[in-house]
Amino acid sequence: MEGMVSDARWIACPNCEAPCLEREPAAGQELRCSRCGTTVLEHIGKKTLQPSMALSIAGLFALLLANTNPVLSFDVAGRVQSEHIITGVEELINQGYWPIAVLVFLAGILAPALHLGSVAYVSTACCLKIPFPWIPVALRVSELAEPFNLMPVYSIATVVSVVKLRMLGAVEWEFGARWVLGVALFSLFAQQTFNRRLVKARLENMGVAA
Ligand SMILES: [Zn+2]
Fold first, then answer.
1. Which CATH number fits domain 50-206: 2.40.160, 1.20.140, 2.40.30, 2.60.120?
2. What are the tens digits of pLDDT across the range 25-37?
3. CA of 20 relative to ligand 1 center, distance in Å
4. What pTM, to 2 d.p., does this model score?
């Protein structure tokens, strides 16, 4: 790196971590890793944040429905019980499993809400070209909350637990279950479409420093 101009920035290849010198690709061009050929940067051009806006808002509605409808119902020895995500958290606290209760609350309710909410906020501002207040804070929240939005993992864990619980009694999927799956899918796709470089370019156009 000796002799490089002082403002040169090195970015890691997303595939093999090889350092690549950051350059803004022109129209029709892309920056490829010289070691493995993976596309490191693409020309931003006319790309929009509309997909991430739509996906994150849909995800928020799915999250609301996943938390206001029972996810599972159990019929163990004639005792029928429907469970919401939050009643599961309460039950874990009552049984003394509070670290797991905190984890379920964080991964199943709080982090998805913060992640989807902040992505929706920032991408809506970019799409409508309205400089909402606190955009840099919302952008930071989206970065922090994203790895804790474990809804995709949570939904797989639910499927596994249903298979196990069927050995004890009748377990039925309830209306909320499809919305848990919805939150998982919307979260994954919102994460894929929320391109931070694109966000920064759009914010720069609006005169917002992020
Ligand atoms: Zn590479």
1. 1.20.140
2. 888 888 999 999 9
3. 8
4. 0.82
